[in-house]
Every structure is written in C-alpha cells, then in structure tokens.
Amino acid sequence: MSAKSKRALRLQQVAVGPLDNVDLEVAPGEIVCLSGPSGSGKSRLLRAVADLEPHGGTVQLGDREQDSVAGHHWRQSVMMVPAETAWWFDSFGEHLSKPMPDALGALGFPEDTGNWAVSRLSSGEKQRLALIRALSREPQALLLDEPTANLDDDTSLKVERWLQAYIRQHQCPVLWVAHREDQIRRVASRHFRIDGAGLREQELRQ
Length: 206
Ligand SMILES: Nc1ncnc2c1ncn2[C@@H]1O[C@H](COP(=O)(O)OP(=O)(O)OP(=O)(O)O)[C@@H](O)[C@H]1O
Fold this sequence. Notes:
This protein is α/β, with parallel strands linked by helices. The protein is built from six helices and ten strands. The strands form two sheets. A six-stranded mixed beta sheet has the order 6-7-8-3-9-10, sandwiched between helices. A four-stranded antiparallel beta sheet has the order 2-1-4-5. The structure holds adenosine-5'-triphosphate. Adenosine-5'-triphosphate binds next to helix 1. Keywords: ATP-binding, Nucleotide-binding. GO terms for molecular function: ATP binding; ATP hydrolysis activity. InterPro entries: AAA+_ATPase, ABC_transporter-like_ATP-bd, ABC_transporter-like_CS, P-loop_NTPase.
C-alpha cells in the first residue's frame, strides 16, 4: 500500500445548502455513512467535498487543502460517484483509466464489457460500471451517493463486499450516502443522520 493512500479526509466548518458548520474527520479505511430525508443536503455535502459546489469552511485530504488544488485534480483524488452518472464516450471501455478485469468479474460482467455501448446499459449496469470506472482512476478518497440504489438485494450485497474489500485494501476514507438500515449496519464504521443544519451521530445497531 502506498503512503499517499493513507490520508484522512477532514471537513471543518463546512457550510453548503441547508448544512452549516459540519466538522467531520474520516480516517483512512473508514466508511462513514450519511442518511437523512430527501432534500436534507446529503448530495450537496458530497458535492462540496468534491469541489463541485461552492461552500464555506475547509476540506482537506491529509495535509492537502481543497483550495490549494485545481478542481479537476482534487476530484482525481477525492472521487465522487453520483447517483446518476454521466458518460461521454460511446463504449464503456473508453471510460476506464486502466483495464479492470477482476472488478468486472466480481460484479458479474463478462470480459468483453469494455465493448458494450453505453447507450444499451440498464440503470443498474450503469451504476455498477460507474463504480468500476471510478476505481480505475485509483482515487484516494471516495464519495458514494447511494451506490446501490438501482440494484436488487443480491447484486447490492456483491457491490458492498467488493467496495469494502477495495476500501480496506487501499485505505480510502469514504463518505457513503445510504438509506437502508441493513446496509448501513453492514458497511458503516460510523453513521450520521442529517438533522436540520447539522449531523447527528447514530448508534450502530448489530
Ligand atoms: N444548486 C443548488 N442551488 C440551490 N438549491 C439547491 C441546489 N442543488 C440542490 N438544491 C436544493 O438543496 C436541497 C438539498 O439537495 P440534495 O440534493 O443535497 O438533497 P439530498 O439529501 O441528497 O436528497 P435525496 O435523498 O432526495 O437525493 C434540496 O432542497 C435541493 O432542491
């Protein structure tokens, strides 16, 4: 494991949309789940951490400040996978930074998936392939916005296990927006619910 991957993600006094003064430190390898009602600001918080939305306060990855890096460079390290993904080439394979045969196999795709036309992908396929695309760029921190929202239970479990293995191996700090209590119980190191303008830590029930 490279030293550069072992970096904490730190939010200090972050203010965006309905949220104010969010302080949060996510350790390397830690998965912090965020939940809250629709419209409470979960996606906007992830977008702020990804430098996709103006915000107050500071965000750091290790000793590197978001403000000191161009947005597109920051997002190569602090990678957001939105609930709905955009695609810009015709075939899936053109979106990868490196071949990902093990990931394709783990998530149930055949070897020739790289040749698949993006226009033919189902929403569940797009969601899984967007995760593979993101990890092909070897991010140092991950921001996952409901990464299994379009998937059936068995496929969700497969994706969870695969993500957990990656996060453990690469020691990425992770913010993971999730709604389902059972998923939060399985994956979260800590769980915060958005409560008005702030985050309230929840007990993790076994
Ligand atoms: N650029 C923007 N400017 C102003 N308001 C916005 C902007 N983007 C989103 N909003 C509003 O901010 C609020 C929070 O949006 P956000 O997408 O973060 O919600 P969410 O908690 O992720 O909801 P959901 O669970 O439905 O995805 C919503 O009321 C939304 O309409």
